[in-house]
Structures are given as C-alpha cells and as structure tokens.
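> run fold ADAM10 cysteine-rich domain-containing protein
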Amino acid sequence: AEFAHKYGLPAGGIALRPGSPCDNFQGYCDVFLKCRAVDAEGPLVRLKNLLLNQATLRTVQAWVTEHWWAVLLAGVALVVLMGAFVKCCAVHTPSSNPKRPPARRLSETLRR
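> ok
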C-alpha cells in the first residue's frame, strides 16, 4: 500500500497486459484482467497419467492378448488402406520422369 501511494499507483493495483505473469509468477493475466493461477496438473499431464498408468496398460495388454485376431486384422486393414491411399494419390503426384504420363488434376478426378 505504501509503495502504491508513494508512486501514484491506483488503489486496486495496476492492469497488466493479457498473458503477463502475475501473483509473483504464480499465474498469468487473462483478457478480463484477472490473474489466473497456473495449473501444474494441466490437461496433458492428466491425460498422460490416465493413459499411461499401470492399471490401464494391464487392461490394454489383457484385451490385446484375448483379442489377438482383431489386432492382427486391424494391422492388415491399415496396411491395405495405406496402399490404396498411395495408389489413389499417385496419379495426382507430378513426376520428373519423362516416360510417365502427366499428373491428373484433382478436379478432373472428382467429375468422373
């Protein structure tokens, strides 16, 4: 209070720009000029703790062991879909090889 009075600062404190650290670097000022505390347990940390804890990993391991055929089928399907995607997009990719036909335009393909 003495510092604010001595240097002519307003009684409620000074307004910081949004994103500025406040409360002795314990938070950041938001667009409404409020100091928002920094959450050490942010959303990414909570998600990491949820997905990578031992109970979740054991559950996933048990499911994969029990449904191995579904995992194998999903892997084969992924390889087939990737191959089809590359095959479909290859006709639109320009090449410097003079023996290859010119690349097709995407708009021509969509009109067929």
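The mean pLDDT is 86.
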